[in-house]
Design brief:
Distance between the termini: 45 Å
Low-confidence stretches: none
Number of strands: 0
Mean pLDDT: 85
Number of helices: 4
Order of helices and strands: HHHH
Shape: flat
Largest sheet: none
Oligomer: single chain
Structural class: mainly alpha
Helix content: 55-70%
């Protein structure tokens, strides 16, 4: 089956470009599910910590808080980076 993908991709994109595209496809197929797992493991960790502290935990977004990782990702994407005017730009962005 992979040989068929390689033959079709090589014919469609050419012999030079296809290995790069195939590598990108493999990276995306491996990384995206891992990112989803990490997001929901973070949610489970928050719920576990909330359980030990006898509080409700993340439950504001979606049923039982299941959309919390998606809300966190959207918040992170649209977060504005505010840099003080007198700060060194390179050092400011290198810092934690």
């Amino acid at each position: 089956m992979i040989d068929q993908f390689n033959a079709a991709g090589g014919a469609l994109f050419g012999g030079i470009l296809w290995p790069v595209i195939w590598s990108i496809i493999k990276i995306v197929v491996l990384v995206l599910p891992l990112m989803g797992c990490v997001a929901y493991l973070t949610l489970w960790e928050r719920k576990g910590i909330a359980w030990t502290q006898v509080r409700p935990g993340p439950n504001r977004v979606g049923p039982y808080g299941l959309l919390t990782p998606i809300a966190d990702a959207v918040k992170l994407i649209f977060k504005e980076i505010i840099r003080p005017t007198a700060a060194n730009k390179g050092l400011f962005f290198l810092g934690p």
